[in-house]
Specification:
By secondary structure, this protein is mainly β. It has strands at 2-4, 14-17, 27-37, 40-47, 52-56, 61-65. 0% of the residues lie in helices and 51% in strands. It has a 6-stranded antiparallel beta sheet, with no helix packed on it. The N and C termini lie close together (10 Å).
């Protein structure tokens, strides 16, 4: 997997949201749709539990591109 910047995120990329407090588990999901302007992107994400929601980019997320994509 390769990490990508928030501005370069695309459909199919994977998202990790780190916990905000000690002991909080990270959340993982897949980007289904890229929304907003390039300078202020946000994403529709399907989380590992099947739940879908909007995610606004922040310093607590890491976006990775699966190795099968280039």
């Amino acid at each position: 997997m390769t990490h990508v910047t928030i501005a370069a995120a695309d459909i199919g990329d994977l998202v990790e949201v780190v916990g905000h407090r000690v002991g909080d588990a990270a959340r993982y999901g897949e980007i289904l749709e890229v929304l907003g302007e390039p300078t202020h992107p946000h994403f529709r994400v399907r989380w590992e539990d099947g739940h879908k929601s909007l995610l606004f980019a922040g310093s607590d997320i890491v976006i990775s591109r699966p190795a099968t994509r280039t």
